[in-house]
Amino acid sequence: MPRTSRSIPREAPLPDAGVQSEGFRETRKARRGALVEDYVELIADLIDDGNEARQVDIAARLGVAQPTVAKMLARLAVDGLVSRKPYRGVFLTEAGRKVADESRARHRVVEDFLRSLGVSEEVARIDAEGIEHHVSAETLEAFRKAMTRGR
């Protein structure tokens, strides 16, 4: 079938297969960790807001069914990130709190950087929610430096 449109020319040569595959591996790793980070960050937010992190609240805020939350909470418990008590909420372990704090810090840097570019508060918050899981420490540091240079 003939092509009807022209492709956009590459600005650089195709990277070495090993280099390119590393990028894809890192992206897959970030996707796997994103859901865990979203859960523990939300649990930390609920607890820090003075509330108990209950399964029903987690489900409502993530927009998923309670059985989905129950399954993830079981996984987080096995991974040592949360503890659960019968008829009570969910609590973060020390390891879970560390993951939540690191995720929240990455989110804050990404959101602040987007805002420094002129992105609206709402869009920056939403976009940061996805970017925070995929951004490297090197890129975060570059975001920080760019923001301090702009002051």
TrEMBL record:
Residues 1-25 are annotated as: Disordered. InterPro entries: DtxR_MntR_Metal-Reg, Fe_dep_repressor, Fe_dep_repressor_sf, HTH_DTXR, Iron_dep_repressor, WH-like_DNA-bd_sf, WH_DNA-bd_sf. It is found in: Cytoplasm. It holds the Pfam family Fe_dep_repr_C. Keywords: Activator, Cytoplasm, DNA-binding, Manganese, Repressor, Transcription, Transcription regulation. GO terms for molecular function: DNA binding; DNA-binding transcription factor activity; protein dimerization activity; transition metal ion binding. Residues 37-93 form the HTH dtxR-type domain. It comes from the Bacteria. GO terms for cellular component: cytoplasm. Belongs to the DtxR/MntR family. Homodimer. PANTHER family: IRON (METAL) DEPENDENT REPRESSOR, DTXR FAMILY, TRANSCRIPTIONAL REGULATOR MNTR. In the presence of manganese, represses expression of mntH and mntS. Up-regulates expression of mntP. This is Transcriptional regulator MntR.
